[in-house]
Design a protein that fits this description.
The chain is built from 2 helices and 8 strands. With about 170 residues, it is α+β, with helices and mostly antiparallel strands. The longest helix has 13 residues, at about 45-60. It is globular.
Length: about 170
């Protein structure tokens, strides 16, 4: 399903833990790392697509996470011609994404990369929120930066005593 400009509607997921570290998945049989993401099916809202993709790619359900925020508008990236399927060439330009920032309320052991028969990731790790983007495929880096920048305001930095609910908590800044 493409929009009239040639972009496929998609969701991106930034999953963070209590330390405000973010989940990175390593693509199956590749040396690239990315956030979970996937297409929005016909009739799905971005939120429903996000929960479906979270289950398919990370094995987590709605009861394992809390939504902290989402991007206001679509963030777009263009896919280089060499990455576009032959049957889509001429029509397909790239993806437009709504990004969600989630807090893991479950445990690390709840993550299951083999929740489906065709896993997207074969490894995962927690990284600092502002990890360098050099392991992300080049044409997605700007969208990742824009999503992280817009959603950072929803995270709170831990106070020196570790009390995340303190009034002294400050917003994480780059």
């Amino acid at each position: 399903m493409l929009d009239r400009d040639g972009y496929r509607p998609n969701v991106g997921i930034i999953l963070c833990n209590l330390k405000n570290e973010v989940f990175w998945g390593k693509r199956v049989r590749e040396h690239s790392w990315q956030f979970p993401q996937g297409g929005i099916k016909s009739g799905e809202t971005p939120e429903l697509a996000m929960f479906r993709e979270l289950q398919e790619e990370v094995g987590l359900g709605a009861h394992h996470v809390k939504i902290l925020g989402r991007t206001r508008d679509w963030l777009r990236y263009e896919v280089p011609e060499k990455w576009v399927r032959r049957e889509w060439r001429g029509n397909y330009r790239g993806q437009k994404q709504i990004w969600f920032l989630l807090r893991l309320t479950g445990r690390d052991c709840d993550v299951c990369l083999r929740a489906t028969e065709k896993p997207e990731f074969d490894a995962w790790r927690w990284n600092e929120y502002w990890v360098p983007m050099d392991t992300v495929i080049e044409f997605k880096r700007e969208v990742y930066h824009r999503a992280l920048s817009e959603l950072a305001r929803y995270l709170r930095r831990r106070t020196p005593r570790g009390d995340e609910h303190s009034n002294q908590a400050s917003i994480i800044e780059r």
